[in-house]
Automatic annotation (TrEMBL):
<keyword id="KW-0010">Activator</keyword>
<dbReference type="GO" id="GO:0003700">
    <property type="term" value="F:DNA-binding transcription factor activity"/>
</dbReference>
<keyword id="KW-0804">Transcription</keyword>
<feature type="domain" description="Response regulatory">
    <location>
        <begin position="3"/>
        <end position="119"/>
    </location>
</feature>
<dbReference type="InterPro" id="IPR048714">
    <property type="entry name" value="DpiA-like_HTH"/>
</dbReference>
<dbReference type="InterPro" id="IPR001789">
    <property type="entry name" value="Sig_transdc_resp-reg_receiver"/>
</dbReference>
<keyword id="KW-0597">Phosphoprotein</keyword>
<dbReference type="GO" id="GO:0005737">
    <property type="term" value="C:cytoplasm"/>
</dbReference>
<dbReference type="Pfam" id="PF00072">
    <property type="entry name" value="Response_reg"/>
</dbReference>
<protein>
    <recommendedName>
        <fullName>Transcriptional regulatory protein</fullName>
    </recommendedName>
</protein>
<keyword id="KW-0238">DNA-binding</keyword>
<dbReference type="InterPro" id="IPR036390">
    <property type="entry name" value="WH_DNA-bd_sf"/>
</dbReference>
<keyword id="KW-0902">Two-component regulatory system</keyword>
<dbReference type="GO" id="GO:0000156">
    <property type="term" value="F:phosphorelay response regulator activity"/>
</dbReference>
<feature type="modified residue" description="4-aspartylphosphate">
    <location>
        <position position="54"/>
    </location>
</feature>
<dbReference type="GO" id="GO:0003677">
    <property type="term" value="F:DNA binding"/>
</dbReference>
<dbReference type="InterPro" id="IPR011006">
    <property type="entry name" value="CheY-like_superfamily"/>
</dbReference>
Length: 234
């Protein structure tokens, strides 16, 4: 499990981030810190892999805390979650090694994609002493390959990857739009677009299921779990 420390002075926002985190597989919350000083104490006391860090806090702000973390040489990653959207702040955060930057307010889909991408990188790196350039580009630096095909407007590669992984995790069992939308953490409207695309490239099928009462329900099923077609779009 990836151990997470949330650093956020607003109790309501901290609770929202905590609930979001609980919905994403592979992460566990270590603690919540309301200030940078408390965060530094917790980082010394607990093993932490990732910090979800706000910038606007009383006393030491998030950027100063990030700089302190880097000076200590601790092997912890930092993901900024802040309302600060000026380019100077963003540049400073990235220069100090922030692995991602989310601007408040954000959709759960964006946080889910950021954490899932981070999780995939961490899991890929574990147990590997060395990487090839191709592995580094694809799995760590997320560089697009020349042969990568364009997605329809409105679709995101990271989210498509999440949707496809969720479809595969069902091991061929049929599912509805609502069921998979809840599992991925995006709206049903957005999910219909991704399922429509997967149908277009012939990876899933759709059928109408009629119940005893009520409206008919659309159910989807994975057709080709081993297909390499999806890789052209990820």
């Amino acid at each position: 499990m990836i151990k997470v420390l949330i650093v956020e002075d607003d109790p309501m926002v901290a609770e929202f981030n905590k609930r979001y985190l609980e919905q994403i597989e592979g992460f566990t919350l270590v603690a919540v810190a309301r200030s940078a000083d408390v965060a530094m104490v917790l980082l010394k006391k607990h093993e932490v892999d990732l910090v979800l860090l706000d910038i606007f806090m009383p006393g030491i702000n998030g950027l100063e805390l990030l700089a302190q973390i880097r000076k200590t040489g601790q092997g912890v990653d930092v993901m900024i979650v802040s309302a600060a959207c000026d380019s100077a702040t963003i540049k400073t955060a990235l220069r100090n090694g922030a692995v991602d930057y989310l601007i408040k307010p954000f959709e759960f889909e964006r946080l889910h994609a950021a954490l899932a991408q981070y999780r995939n990188k961490v899991l890929f790196m574990r147990g590997r002493d060395a990487l090839s350039q191709a592995e580094l580009d694809r799995h760590v630096l997320s560089r697009e390959e020349a042969e990568q095909k364009d997605l329809p407007k409105g679709l995101d590669r990271t989210t498509l990857k999440l949707v496809w992984e969720t479809v595969l995790s069902g091991q061929g069992a049929p599912f509805t739009t609502e069921e998979i939308a809840n599992r991925v953490g995006i709206s049903r409207v957005s999910m219909r677009k991704y399922l429509g695309f997967l149908r277009y490239i012939d990876l899933i099928s759709r059928e109408v299921v009629y119940g005893a009462v009520g409206r008919p329900v659309y159910k989807y099923r994975c057709l080709r779990p081993e297909s390499e077609v999806i890789k052209q779009y990820l």
